[in-house]
């Protein structure tokens, strides 16, 4: 098989890239190791930055998002029994975010790709990227029990943190920057209308909690749990009781309960692989970088990377210049490191480390109080949360 751009992975990065290339008249083939149902149901991100919303609309993938997504103009920070609302449009000159789940973004992009785009092969596992530093990179893969080779002009590794693409960069040229955290998130989906109309990020002495949503009738909630926690250790009553404690306020706010339909634990990690390009292999999204989820940045970074790649390739096609392709890694990494910084700040602002001292607790409260009382500090959060410009 032969194509211009071989895309490994049909998460948000790979699917959006295939769509952007299709719109620009560039052919691609997407290889995805899992089946369609798995990709469409994997519960992950929920928040789209303004820039991501704009990209999806411009790509012709925004119709259902515009009908069913929920525009959010702020978040609530909850700490020391207080509630503080951060008003995004007011602080950022009109920017907001959209609550529209990653599962829905993927469903929309898959439907478009199957209807209008190039080949998208499910249960097609990439085994290795070969000859990345030549004019003819190749992807070896296994599909329906047989091995095949996809010959490409370019390969984009959109295969997430556990994928194979990153391994094709020689160790002597790679640098990894990494940090792990001694806690994770227990996430639940519950069939109950959200208890608040905006997201609530709560800092509590017992640990962090987050109230989010998937729609006006489905709540998504997260609890900080110790590293290595098994979701089965938590029965439903224990989850609700812990959420009640962590969201507690002085004004008697109540959390609504409903049947829990899903429960899982996500570990936390900060990770950046540099460079994001080796020859004609480009890494995008979680294949190149991971952020802890507290800042809601992972999916949005993946979108930024593939927009940068698509623009660079179109530029190459239109002008013959490889200048933007050559600058891909540097261009993406500027934005990536800002998101790493913000995600780290939000994580350390709101979570309680197991070895936290009273001094650490007071510092956290002082940082939160600074955001609640200084327009400059609050604006810094609002600008980062609603998203850094794509370029
Ligand atoms: P992925 O979504 O991981 O997709 C990679 C794809 O490649 C997968 O489909 C995988 O099956 C496939 N693949 C892997 N190996 C191979 C192979 N060898 N061959 C073929 N295919 C392969 N981000 C936000 O922006 N906002 C949020 O609110 C947010 N919340 C989150 C909450 C949680 C609990 C978690 C876990 C993540 C959250 N994220 C959030 C992060 C976000 O989900 C990820 O950053 C995003 O999925 C990255 O997209 P991707 O396409 O790069 O990678
Ligand atoms: C969701 C996830 C996040 O990491 C976040 O910061 C906000 C919302 C969510 O899944 O809804």
3D architecture notes:
With 391 residues, the chain is an alpha+beta fold. It has a domain at 2-71 and 100-178 and 269-352: 3-Layer(bba) Sandwich (FAD/NAD(P)-binding domain). The chain is 36% helix and 29% strand. The protein has twelve helices and 19 strands. It has helices spanning 12-23, 36-41, 50-58, 63-68, 88-92, 102-116, 236-247, 298-319, 323-326, 328-350, 358-373, 375-386; strands at residues 2-8, 28-31, 47-49, 70-72, 74-79, 82-87, 97-99, 120-121, 124-130, 138-143, 146-157, 175-190, 199-203, 209-213, 219-226, 260-274, 277-278, 281-283, 289-290. The strands form three sheets. Strands 1, 2, 8, 9, 10, 11, 17 and 18 form an eight-stranded mixed beta sheet that branches. An eight-stranded mixed beta sheet has the order 6-5-13-14-15-12-16-19. A hairpin with a 5-residue loop joins strand 13 (199-203) and strand 14 (209-213). Helix 8 runs antiparallel to helix 10 and helix 11 packs across helix 12. The chain is globular and about 65 Å long. 45% of the residues are buried. Bound molecules: flavin-adenine dinucleotide and 3,4-dihydroxybenzoic acid. Residues 8-14, 31-34, 39, 44-47, 102, 125-126, 158-160, 163-164, 185, 187, 266, 285-286, 293, 296-300, 302 line the site of flavin-adenine dinucleotide.
CATH class division of the domain at 2-71 and 100-178 and 269-352: Alpha Beta
Please identify, by name, the CATH architecture of the domain at 2-71 and 100-178 and 269-352. Answer: 3-Layer(bba) Sandwich
Total helical segments: 12
- State the major sheet: 8 strands, mixed
The rounded distance between the terminal residues' Cα atoms is 34 Å
Instruction: Briefly note the CATH topology name of the domain at 2-71 and 100-178 and 269-352.
Output: FAD/NAD(P)-binding domain
- Inertia-based shape: globular
Beta strand %:
25-35%
Tell me the name of the CATH homologous superfamily of the domain at 2-71 and 100-178 and 269-352.
Answer: FAD/NAD(P)-binding domain
Q: What percentage of residues falls in helices of 4 or more residues?
A: 25-40%
* Global structural class: alpha+beta
Mean pLDDT rating: 97
Identify the bound ligands: flavin-adenine dinucleotide, 3,4-dihydroxybenzoic acid
Count the beta strands: 19
Give Rg in angstroms.
Answer: 21 Å
Low-pLDDT runs of 5+ residues are: none
């Amino acid at each position: 098989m032969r194509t211009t751009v071989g895309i490994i992975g049909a998460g948000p990065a790979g699917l959006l890239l295939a769509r952007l290339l299709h719109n620009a008249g560039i052919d691609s083939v997407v290889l995805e190791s899992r089946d369609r149902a798995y990709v469409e149901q994997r519960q992950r991100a929920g928040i789209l930055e303004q820039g991501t919303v704009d990209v999806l609309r411009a790509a012709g993938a925004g119709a259902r998002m515009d009908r069913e997504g929920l525009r959010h103009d702020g978040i609530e920070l909850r700490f020391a029994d207080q509630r503080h609302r951060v008003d995004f449009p007011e602080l950022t000159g009109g920017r907001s975010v959209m609550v529209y789940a990653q599962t829905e973004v993927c469903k929309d992009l898959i439907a478009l790709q199957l209807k209008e785009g190039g080949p998208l092969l499910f249960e097609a596992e990439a085994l290795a990227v070969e000859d990345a530093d030549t004019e003819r990179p190749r992807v070896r893969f296994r599909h329906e029990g047989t091995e095949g080779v996809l010959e490409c002009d370019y390969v984009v590794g959109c295969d997430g943190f556990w994928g194979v693409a990153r391994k094709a960069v020689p160790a002597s040229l790679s640098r990894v920057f990494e940090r792990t955290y001694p806690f994770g998130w227990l996430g639940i989906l519950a069939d109950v209308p959200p208890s608040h109309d905006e997201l609530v990020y709560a800092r509590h002495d017992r640990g962090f909690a987050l109230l989010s949503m998937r729609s006006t009738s489905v709540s998504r909630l997260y609890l900080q749990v110790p590293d290595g926690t098994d979701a089965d250790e938590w029965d439903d009553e224990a989850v609700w009781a812990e959420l009640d404690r962590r969201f507690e306020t002085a004004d008697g706010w109540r959390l609504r309960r409903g049947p829990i339909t899903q429960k899982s634990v996500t570990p936390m990690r900060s990770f950046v692989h540099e460079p994001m390009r080796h020859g004609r292999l480009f890494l995008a999204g979680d294949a190149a970088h991971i952020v802890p989820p507290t800042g809601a940045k992972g999916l949005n970074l993946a979108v930024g990377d593939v927009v940068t790649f698509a623009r660079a390739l179109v530029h190459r096609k239109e002008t013959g210049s490889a200048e933007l392709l050559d600058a891909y890694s540097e261009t993406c990494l500027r934005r990536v490191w800002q998101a790493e910084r913000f995600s780290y700040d939000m994580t350390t602002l709101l979570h309680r480390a197991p070895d936290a001292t009273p001094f650490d607790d007071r510092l956290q409260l002082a940082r939160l109080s600074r955001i609640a009382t200084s327009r400059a500090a609050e604006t810094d959060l609002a600008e980062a949360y609603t998203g850094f410009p794509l370029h």
